[in-house]
Amino acid sequence: MYKQKPFDANSQSEIKLTNSRRSFLKASVGACALFTLPLVASHAHAKIMQPTEKKIAFLNLHTSERIKTTYWAEGEYIPESLQAIRNVLRDHRSGDLHTMDTNLFDMLHLLQRQLGSDQEFNVISAFRSEKTNAMLAARSGGVARSSFHTQGKAIDIRLPGSALADVHTAALSLNIGGVGYYPRSDFIHVDTGHTRSWGG
Ligand SMILES: [Zn+2]
User: Fold this and answer.
1) Nearest Cα to 112, choosing from 172, 152, 167?
2) What residue numbers bound the domain in which 20 lies?
3) 95 and 141 together in one domain
């Protein structure tokens, strides 16, 4: 090892380093052999400091379908994961699917980090078609006629292992979007509309 020439910052390894993750790993292995650990370590350190992926898990209480997936990695949302989540969060009454607002998942991800939980979110209601929402609104005063649920921007959840009051407090502390507290029905509503809260 010590017979090898010292690492040259302008060498091919360094250029590869910036090309892609695969090249980064390859270059790291090569660079170690060239005892340039401090340089490689600083790159690796930067990677560790920033979150490289976001995971989320849901159980739809109406259909018993569940999903656990990495929905964001290396700075990008993963379309296949979003599609799979969208399916689990569909309107179970009508079967309608709708694109879900990715900000909602980020909000839930933050909420979970705040609570130090790795449990799956139990879903009482996520996307609702206009028809389903109108039916529920006619039946219950607690359902808004114009609801973020019909835009894929709201979800009603509880989190096993965390008291509902704690989930509610944590959601309020994020200070983003809408937060509704429904202790009698044992769920909280979160949405990506403007910051507001009710029921607390
Ligand atoms: Zn709701």
Assistant:
1) 167
2) 12-49
3) yes
